[in-house]
Amino acid sequence: MRKPSIIHESEKLSRVLEIQLGGKSLLTPTYFPAVSSYGVKPLFQDLLFFLKHHKYPRVLVSAYDLYNMKEKKREEALSLLKSYRETGFLFVDSGLFESWGKGDKSWKMKPFKSILPKVEFDLYSSFDVYRTKGRSYEDHKRRTHRNLLESSVFLDDVAFFAILHESSPTRLVKLASEIVEEHSDLCRNVAVAERDIGKSLSERAETVVALRRVLHDKNCHLLHILGCGNPLSMLLYSYCGADTFDSVDWVRLAIDPSNYLTHDFAHLELLKCECKVCSEKPYSRGEYLDKLLLHNLLFYQGFVMQMQSLIRNDNIEGYAREHIGSKIIDQINEY
């Protein structure tokens, strides 16, 4: 992957980048709706087909889910993803979220590496290493580096993300700083889980600022926030320098475009939304689940384009103050 082009840099550490992969172009900040076998009711294959059918331009899937499919279903999914990738961007992560959620301790580096060559993708991540109780920082750092080295087998024409985990935001920034310093060739792009970057919104935003500064100092590129789909969080983290996001929120919640708040899955009809999915008859006559998913996808697509426009016009700080509040923005600006 060649270095992304900087389209515009704006307030705090926000920026719009252009990523070119496989003859396709992607602008940041952007959002990847995640398709997962854990924590959502719709079937993995049904969600994939839904995104392909409606031509949504980005998707994230897990290597774990693909590996654990029955052979016939896997071949169908791989064929669908190959067709999807002709115009859309496919991000493959390791799937440790799914394996831990299901209590499956058999998911290791070997099966992860065995499934990757069977998938055609644009972006992919390393195999995660969680910090476990009793393991020293140095041991965790060595294991992280080893997994980065073993995972980075496809570096030509794709974007490789080094996933970093730690037990506190301070330790995460330290790990990122040292790993990037010592192994910058493996850390051109970094991904961190939202749950690892702090408990409060302001602490998380400060961690994003610290990580972006680390990456900037080492001439690294993209910062991805795993498991982040809350619009207000995405807005603030983009202001602080994050580039890409993913989550299963699009399948689990109903998003109110008027105030960016999220609601219960069943509450779409309470939002009084006037987007085309909620207001035009061809959509209103469809199944509720299809309508909800389309509503959310339409929101995310418009929202990331809006953030890009705000950054290009140097208006993202004012917009963040309006929707998040000046107290947090002032705190971030002093950090």
Any overview of this molecule?
It is a single chain. With 335 residues, this protein is of the alpha/beta class. The model has no long low-confidence stretch (mean pLDDT 94). It has a single domain (5-334), classed as TIM Barrel. It is built from 15 helices and 13 strands. The strands form three sheets. It has an eight-stranded parallel sheet. Helix 7 (169-182) runs parallel beside helix 8. The chain is globular.
Question: Topology, pairings included?
Answer:
Blueprint: E1 5-9, E2 15-21, E3 24-27, E4 30-33, H1 44-53, E5 58-62, H2 63-67, H3 71-84, E6 89-93, H4 96-101, H5 109-115, E7 123-125, H6 137-151, E8 159-164, H7 169-182, E9 189-193, H8 201-217, E10 223-226, H9 231-239, E11 244-247, H10 249-252, E12 254-255, E13 262-263, H11 276-279, H12 281-284, H13 288-312, H14 316-324, H15 326-334
Parallel strand pairs: 4-11, 5-6, 6-7, 7-8, 8-9, 9-10, 10-11
Antiparallel strand pairs: 1-2, 2-3, 12-13
Strand and helix order: EEEEHEHHEHHEHEHEHEHEHEEHHHHH
Strand content: 15-25%
Q: Low-confidence segments, ≥5 residues, pLDDT <50?
A: none
Q: How many individual β-strands?
A: 13
Looking at the overall shape, the CATH architecture is Alpha-Beta Barrel
Structural class: alpha/beta
**Percent range of helical residues:** 40-55%
Q: Mean pLDDT, rounded to whole units?
A: 94
CATH topology: TIM Barrel
Terminal residue distance: 32 Å
The CATH H-level homologous superfamily:
Queuine tRNA-ribosyltransferase-like
Most strands sheet: 8 strands, parallel
Major beta sheet, strand line-up = 4-11-10-9-8-7-6-5
Tell me the radius of gyration: 19 Å
Number of helices in the DSSP assignment? 15
Q: What number of domains?
A: 1
